[in-house]
């Protein structure tokens, strides 16, 4: 990891409201404090600012601890640690997520997405499983037609080999002629 001199001035700070806490980090606390103040005045709509406005604009911002470090990632890791320790409930996003945890969460999200948003699948009469929206195209394919012919041949052979259990009447055009 590269070292960035600015992060020697790292600060972890908190913003407290009547019923919530936000944890942030910066290398320029006076500027960051001013940014928060202007966002409250401009009515920025994130969880933090909605909560501040709900309580009439009342909040306290203070330095939680000085945290000199080498780079942004180290500062974000510490911010996340403090956020978890203080049970911060006004942070919209996590500032740092371990790559292994992020990978597991992404995989879980993808599995849920596939269950919810992927188009439904069906089984064609020829035995092929496909998406429902592809059925009309599939019905025109040589593969589909060949499988149906093969299936009907197998059914005919089974019918001819096995003795019928009931009387079977096969109608032909000749049966319908009035004599």
Can I get a quick summary?
The chain is an alpha+beta fold and 179 residues long.
What can you tell me about this protein's structure?
- This protein has 179 residues and is α+β, with helices and mostly antiparallel strands.
- The chain folds into two domains: 5-99, GIY-YIG endonuclease; 122-163, no CATH class.
- It has helices spanning 29-42, 47-54, 72-85, 99-117, 135-138, 142-161; strands at 11-16, 21-26, 60-66, 121-123, 129-131.
- Strands 2-1-3 form a three-stranded antiparallel beta sheet. A two-stranded antiparallel sheet has the order 4-5.
- Strand 4 (121-123) and strand 5 form a beta hairpin.
- The chain starts with 10 loop residues before the first strand and ends in an 18-residue tail after the last helix.
Give the count of structural domains.
2
CATH-wise, what's the superfamily of the largest domain?
GIY-YIG endonuclease
Measured as a percent range, the helix fraction is: 40-55%
Q: From the 3D coordinates, which CATH architecture of the largest domain would you assign?
A: 3-Layer(aba) Sandwich
Strand and helix order: EEHHEHHEEHH
CATH fold-level label of the largest domain: GIY-YIG endonuclease
What's the pLDDT, averaged over the residues? 87
Please count the beta strands (DSSP E, at least 2 residues each): 5
Distinct helical segment count: 6
Task: Please give the order of strands in the largest beta sheet.
Answer: 2-1-3
Helix and strand content put the structural class at alpha+beta
- Form type: elongated
Largest sheet: 3 strands, antiparallel
Q: Which stretches are low in confidence, meaning pLDDT under 50 for 5 or more residues running?
A: none
